[in-house]
Design a protein that fits this description.
Blueprint lengths: L4 H13 L41 E6 L14 H10 L4 E4 L4 E4 L2 E6 L5 E6 L12 H12 L19 H5 L11 E5 L2 E5 L7 H4 L31 E7 L3 E6 L13 E6 L3 H9 L5 E3 L10 H7 L4 E14 L9 H9 L3 H9 L4 E2 L15 H4 L9 H14 L8 E6 L2 H18 L3 E6 L1 H9 L5 E7 L6 H4 L16 H11 L4 H18 L3 E13 L3 E2 L2 E2 L5 E2 L4 E2 L3
Helix pairs in contact: 8-11, 15-16
GO molecular function: peptide transmembrane transporter activity
Subcellular location: Cell envelope
Family: Belongs to the bacterial solute-binding protein 5 family.
C-alpha cells in the first residue's frame, strides 16, 4: 500500500473520527464512491435516503471467495467467517463504521466504575431467532466456552478475553473456578464485567465475534454450528440456506430487536474462488458487489475497471497487512539469518507495480498505517524501518546461516497459499525473486481455505501466505498474537522476552509507555527474529452497483452488510 500522501491523509482522518473499530484480515488515489454509504443524507421512512425508492426485491447478491471454516463464534478467526457472522449475531456493542464509535447493541446502556475496571451492562429486550429472550447468562456461557481449557478444539481467539480478570489464568488452568473470572450475570438483564487493567478500546472489542453470546441450545451439541437447523442467532439475519461449497443464504430475522432498520430481505452469498468469474458475474448483473474483503477482482483488471466504472470503483487504504510467515520450529527456518535473507530479497514496490496493481504500500513492519498511537498515528511516530531490501547483504546472511546449519545450499522448500489467482501471482513473483537473488528453488502449494487454515494452525507448513486485519484500533491487535502459544501464532515462535513486553503493555494505560513497548515488540519480531516477512499494507479495491446503498467498510477493511438496501434499477 505506497503511494500518495492522500492515503496518509485518509488514515489521519480515520483517527480523527474513530478511536476503536472491530474487524477479523493502499493508496487512496482513485475515485471514492461515497454513494455506497447511507449516512450523508436525510433518511426517508422506508430507510432509504430522501427521494430514493427501494427496489421491490431486497435480495443482496455477493460473492465469498472462500467458504467460512466455521460459524461458531468461539472458533472463527478469518475474514470470511467475520462477514457472515456479523449478519447473524450481535454483541453487547456494535460498531458504527461511519462514526468509528462503539454504540449500543444488545446492551442498551452501560456504566463504568471510577477506576475503569468494572463495566455494568444493562441489556435491552432482545430475542433470539427462536423467540427466547437474550439474557446475561448467554454471554457468560459464550465466554466460558472461549476460555474452556478442556475444549476439544481450543478457541484461537481465547487471548482476546484475557482483558477480563482471571480469564488467562482460567484458560491456562491456574484458576479452576470460572466464577473467579471477571464476568457475572447479576440478573437476566444485567451483566457485570471486571477487567484486570483499564482497557480504552474494550467497548470496541465487545463488538468482535469472539465476544458474541450463544444460545443455551449449544450445550451438549458439539455440531450445533454445522447446520442451519441448529443455528439460533440474535442478529439481523438468520442462516436459511447452506449448500456446502456452493452458496450461503441469510434472511431477515423478524425477532431482531432493531428489525425496522434492516431493509434487506435476504443476502445470497455465492462461493466462487475465481476472481475472473466473480468480475464477470458483477458485470452481467448477477452480483451487486465485487472485490475485497469478500471476494477479489483480478489484479490485471484493476486498472481497467477503475477506468471503465469510475462511479462504481472504490479504493480505500485499510489497516491490514499481507505477509509470509515461517514455521520457525522446522529446519532450516529455525535459523534467523536464513529468514532474514529471504525477507531482504523481495522487491516490494515492483511487486505492487507489476503484480498486485492495487495501490498498496510496501511493508517493512507489521503494524500498518491507520492504527492509533500515543499521539496521532503509531506508524507516523514509529517508522517501519526494521530492515531494508539488500540482495548483497541477503546473500551474505544466507551463506552464514547455511554454514551454521551445516548446509551448502538451501534445500527446496514449500510456499503454501490458499486458493486465489492473486495469491498465486504473488507467490510466483516472489519465488522468481528468490531464485534470481539467492538461487533457491521453491515449490508452490495451493490449498483450499479450510485445509490451509488448519495446516497453518498446526504448523504443518514451511513458509505460508497470511494476512491480518485489525480487530480494534490499537497496535495490540497486531502484536499480542505472537505471544508463546498464542491462538493465532501459527509460526511456533516462543520468546519470553516478547511475552513480557506484551504483558507489560496490558498492565498499563500510560500511552507513552505502551508505544515504547509496542515498538520494542515489533522490532523483536521483525528486525531481531524475523518470524515473518511483511510484504505490503493492503488497499481495499471493490466495485459497488450504483443502486446498492448502506454497505460500509471499517478502517480495517471489515465489511458490514446489515444496513444495506437496494434502490429501484
Amino acid at each position: 500500500m505506497k503511494k500518495s500522501k492522500s492515503l496518509l491523509l485518509l488514515f489521519a482522518l480515520v483517527l480523527v473520527i474513530g478511536t476503536v473499530l472491530a474487524g477479523c484480515g493502499g493508496g487512496n488515489n482513485a475515485t471514492t464512491n461515497t454513494g455506497n454509504t447511507a449516512g450523508n443524507t436525510p433518511a426517508a421512512t422506508d430507510g432509504s435516503a430522501s427521494g430514493e425508492k427501494l427496489a421491490a426485491d431486497q435480495t443482496l447478491k455477493i460473492n465469498l471467495m472462500s467458504e467460512p471454516p466455521t460459524f461458531d463464534p468461539a472458533l472463527a478467526n478469518d475474514s470470511q467467517a467475520n462477514t457472515v457472522l456479523k449478519t447473524m449475531y450481535e454483541g453487547l456493542t456494535r460498531m458504527n463504521d461511519e462514526t468509528g464509535q462503539a454504540e449500543p447493541g444488545i446492551a442498551a446502556t452501560w456504566d463504568l466504575s471510577a477506576d475503569g475496571l468494572v463495566y455494568t451492562f444493562h441489556l435491552r429486550d432482545a430475542k433470539w431467532s427462536n423467540g427466547d429472550a437474550v439474557v446475561a447468562g448467554d454471554f457468560v456461557r459464550a465466554w466460558k466456552r472461549v476460555l474452556d481449557p478442556a475444549a476439544a478444539e481450543p478457541a484461537p481467539y481465547s487471548y482476546q478475553l484475557y482483558y477480563l480478570k482471571n480469564a488467562q489464568e482460567y484458560n491456562e488452568k491456574k484458576v479452576t473456578d470460572f466464577n473467579q473470572v471477571g464476568v457475572k450475570a447479576v440478573d437476566d438483564k444485567t451483566l457485570e464485567v471486571t477487567l484486570k487493567a483499564p482497557t480504552p478500546y474494550f467497548l470496541g472489542l465487545l463488538s468482535f465475534y469472539t465476544y458474541y453470546p450463544v444460545h443455551k441450545s449449544v450445550e451438549g451439541n458439539a455440531k450445533w454450528a454445522a447446520s442451519k437447523d441448529t443455528m439460533i442467532v440474535d442478529g439481523p439475519f438468520t442462516l436459511t440456506e447452506w449448500t456446502t461449497g456452493q452458496s450461503i443464504q441469510v434472511s431477515k430475522n423478524e425477532n431482531y430487536w432493531d428489525k425496522d432498520s434492516i431493509k434487506l430481505s435476504k443476502i445470497d452469498f455465492s462461493l466462487v474462488n475465481s476472481s475472473a468469474t466473480e468480475l464477470s458475474a458483477y458485470e452481467s448483473g448477477q452480483l451487486d458487489y465485487s472485490g475485497l474483503p469478500t471476494g477479489e477482482i483480478p489484479t490485471e483488471q484493476l486498472p481497467i475497471v477503475q477506468q471503465k466504472y469510475p462511479d462504481e470503483f472504490q479504493r480505500k487504504g485499510i489497516a491490514s497487512v499481507y505477509y509470509y510467515e515461517f514455521n520457525v520450529t522446522e529446519k532450516p527456518f529455525d535459523n534467523v539469518k536464513i529468514r532474514k535473507a529471504l525477507a531482504m530479497t523481495i522487491d516490494r514496490q515492483t511487486l505492487i507495480d507489476k503484480v498486485t496493481l492495487g495501490g498498496q504500500l510496501p511493508a517493512f513492519g507489521f503494524v500498518p498505517p491507520g492504527i492509533a498511537g500515543a499521539n496521532g498515528e503509531y506508524r507516523t511516530a514509529i517508522k517501519d524501518s526494521y530492515f531494508t531490501e539488500d540482495d548483497a547483504q541477503a546473500k551474505t546472511l544466507l551463506e552464514e546461516g547455511l554454514k551454521e546449519e551445516g548446509l551448502t545450499k538451501l534445500p527446496t522448500f514449500t510456499l503454501s497459499y490458499n486458493t486465489s489467482e492473486g495469491h498465486k501471482k504473488i507467490a510466483l513473483a516472489i519465488a522468481d525473486m528468490w531464485k534470481k537473488a539467492l538461487g533457491v528453488d521453491v515449490k508452490l502449494e495451493n490449498q483450499e481455505w479450510a485445509v490451509f487454515i488448519e495446516n497453518r494452525q498446526h504448523q504443518n507448513f514451511q513458509v505460508a501466505r497470511a494476512g491480518w486485519t485489525a480487530d480494534y484500533n490499537d497496535p495490540m491487535t497486531f502484536l499480542d498474537m505472537w505471544v508463546t502459544k498464542g491462538g493465532n501464532n501459527d509460526t511456533g515462535y516462543a520468546n519470553p522476552a516478547y511475552d513480557k513486553l506484551i504483558a507489560d503493555v496490558k498492565a498499563t494505560d500510560d500511552a507513552a509507555v505502551r508505544q515504547e513497548k509496542f515498538a520494542a515488540a515489533e522490532k523483536m519480531i521483525i528486525q531481531d527474529d524475523m518470524i515473518l516477512i511483511p510484504l505490503y499494507y493492503y488497499s481495499n479495491n471493490s466495485l459497488t452497483k450504483p443502486y446498492l446503498k448502506g454497505v460500509t467498510l471499517d478502517f480495517s477493511g471489515g465489511i458490514d452488510l446489515t444496513r444495506a438496501y437496494l434502490l429501484e434499477h
